[in-house]
Design goal:
Helix 2 runs antiparallel to helix 3, helix 2 runs antiparallel to helix 9 and helix 6 runs antiparallel to helix 8. The protein contains nine helices and no strands. The longest helix is centred in the first third of the chain and has 26 residues. Helix content is about 85%, strand content about 0%. The radius of gyration is 16 Å and the shape is globular. The protein has about 180 residues and is mainly α. About 30% of the residues are buried.
């Protein structure tokens, strides 16, 4: 596992190209969530549409990868499987959001935003990235504070801005590696 493992781990420019598709798709998804939160429909209906928006993440990511000509799966890097395991872990946390959905419907988006932020943390190690580390902590705490104190559409707006800032930060971090 020695050198080969660390060579793959430090090849984060390639890894981050695939991940950027998902981060760019996250901007699209949070934009969709913001649009849902602006609808004049009952909160349970909004929550259902929010889940529909989150389900679009992988198809939109795949479409973006085709547009920018990036190998979406990157089967040549063994760490891709570990990255997928980190992503699958987030699916287990979505069970909490599903419980919140009917129980405390006005806080479901906050829980979803915290899960989104927290799921970035292991990627900070995988990609050896400060952008992932800082974004994970900031997004999670900010989602909690905004979610407790403001309406969900404000939280969706903040999340859209945070994910866009995260994407820009990743681009800047990668340019420093060149």
């Amino acid at each position: 596992m020695g050198c080969e493992f660390f060579c793959f781990r430090h090849d984060r420019i390639t890894i981050n190209l695939e991940k950027k598709c998902i981060i760019i798709a996250s901007i699209v998804v949070w934009g969709g969530i913001l649009a849902v939160e602006l609808l004049n429909v009952p909160v349970l209906t909004k929550n259902l549409f929010v889940f529909v928006c989150t389900a679009l993440l992988l198809p939109v990511s795949y479409f973006i990868s085709r547009l920018i000509n990036v190998d979406f799966q990157n089967k040549t890097n063994p760490l891709t499987k570990l990255g997928m395991l980190f992503s699958m872990n987030q699916l287990l946390y979505l069970l909490i959001a599903m419980w919140i959905y009917p129980t405390i419907p006005n806080k479901m988006l906050m829980v979803l935003a915290i899960i989104f932020g927290a799921h970035l943390l292991p990627y900070s190690w995988l990609y050896n990235s400060r952008a992932y580390l800082i974004s994970s902590i900031v997004i999670s705490i900010l989602a909690l504070l905004v979610g407790i104190n403001f309406k969900p559409f404000i939280l969706a707006s903040v999340m859209l801005a945070m994910v866009a800032a995260f994407c820009i930060t990743l681009i800047l971090e990668n340019h420093q590696l060149d």
